[in-house]
Amino acid sequence: MVEDEARLAAALQRGLRAEGFAVDVARTGPAGLDAARHGGYDAMILDVMLPGLSGYELVRTLRAEQHWLPVLMLSAKDGEYDQADGLDCGADDYLTKPFSYVVLLARLRALLRRGAPERPAVLAVGDLRLDPARRRVTRADAEVTLTAREFALLNYLMRRPGQVISKIELLDHVWNASLETAPNIVEVYVGYLRRKLGRDRLETIRGAGYRLAT
Amino acid sequence: MVEDEARLAAALQRGLRAEGFAVDVARTGPAGLDAARHGGYDAMILDVMLPGLSGYELVRTLRAEQHWLPVLMLSAKDGEYDQADGLDCGADDYLTKPFSYVVLLARLRALLRRGAPERPAVLAVGDLRLDPARRRVTRADAEVTLTAREFALLNYLMRRPGQVISKIELLDHVWNASLETAPNIVEVYVGYLRRKLGRDRLETIRGAGYRLAT
DNA sequence: CTCGGCCCTGAGAACGTGCTGAGGACGCCG
DNA sequence: CGGCGTCCTCAGCACGTTCTCAGGGCCGAG
């Protein structure tokens, strides 16, 4: 765990140890980066606001060096950075402070389960390629420019090609939105993606969600 | 589900129904308690802040009456009550708002599993396969596209292969309908399924209901 | 065989979901 | 300050889905 607030770090460490995890804490960005490189960990919990090196830069560096450690990012919700930015630089999941400990635990477990050893540097589905580290998307070798939100949405979909993903799940992971948020925003962004990637890449499963055609 | 915020309740109900759950909503504490006592439910999602009777009191009452329905509690995080309180009164699990929908789903499934024998991820009967997570149905390895309602109906039937299931039961669980609803709608949808899956997969037991041929 | 009740089905109305263009709010940069 | 790009809201429309209804077939009882 990379976290500079001592009290939060200590509380989390205690809680996670009680669940049977082995937890080390680093207090600065550079120390965290080093630990991630050489520590042999299964996952990393990473604050965004860090002395020396921000969480964003840390993940980006890690990914550029071909380290695919699962990363769960924590950020204060004061909007200096956008939520989508976190996923853009290669974090696997994202929580905004203040968060529920139970939720953190559940998401951490999900990350470990997913545990993708040797994730390809570039996600590829059909002639679509997405490079999380470089934040680039190409379609049949032609570059497609996406906004942050569009990129985050496509990123999420490309990690589960062929699966049906509900609007609620997308709202939850791509927008970090509460359940009450109108699902229309998802429809709008699926529309944007379709315009940029081709009409039939994203399938609508009426009453259920969307699916990325394989 | 016992929840007085209408928008949240509606969103959750929609989401859970899409997953194949039959969901009823009560808006007040007393109404919820009554439903828990007599509704024959498999689990309850319970808000803490409720008009008439708090979630804490509701669970305590229920447990005192020897009802052991699994309860998943939701609470706002403004700290008036402590998280531990919820578990103390007899709730089985606990989430603080705002929570992730996916986590709620996972925890709800975990609660239901705890009570019942482990369910396979993919249901299979004859050459019919149904994957609830991917929301996909195949018949002899050919994909069959179903509407939301058709899927819910088949899902329910496939969990009880070989059993005779009455139209009333189907109305209740698949349609969430009141007793006065005309049973004809079930006949119509059984007709749709027969057209898509093959004429003899669904047996009519005259005067009793339907049965999925094994 | 006849009758009554149960079930099936096609037509079409009612409803809801998803798609889209217009445009407002906001932040960034010149 | 004004232009630009992104994010998001809203309302209208299109079309698939859901449901209602009525007519007819089938089955079992007498």
Detailed description of the structure:
The structure is a homodimer of 214-residue chains. The first copy, chain A, is of the alpha+beta class and 214 residues long. Helix content of chain A is 40%, strand content 18%. Chain A has 8 helices and 10 strands. Chain A has a 4-stranded antiparallel sheet, covered by helices on one side. A 3-stranded parallel sheet of chain A has the order 1-2-3. The longest helix of chain A is centred in the middle third of the chain and has 14 residues. The first copy, chain A, is globular and about 50 Å long. The termini of chain A are far apart. The model of chain A has no long low-confidence stretch (mean pLDDT 82). Chains A and B meet through helix 5 and helix 7 of A and helix 1, strand 3 and helix 5 of B. Chain A binds a DNA duplex (30 and 30 nucleotides) through helix 8.
Question: What brief labels describe this structure?
Answer:
homodimer; 214 residues; alpha+beta; three-stranded parallel β-sheet; globular; DNA-binding
What fraction of the residues of chain A are assigned to beta strands by DSSP?
A: 15-25%
> Tell me about the biggest sheet of chain A?
4 strands, antiparallel
Share of helical residues of chain A: 40-55%
Helix-strand string of chain A: HHEHEHEHEEEEHEHHEE
Number of helices of chain A: 8
> Within the largest sheet of chain A, what's the order of strands?
4-5-6-7
Largest interface (CB < 8 Å): A-B, 24 and 26 residues
Radius of gyration of chain A: 17 Å
**Spans where pLDDT lies below 50 across 5 or more residues of chain A:** none
The overall pLDDT average of chain A reads: 82
- How would you classify the quaternary structure? homodimer
N-to-C span of chain A: 36 Å
Q: What's the overall geometry of chain A?
A: globular
Structural class of chain A: alpha+beta
The overall strand count of chain A is 10
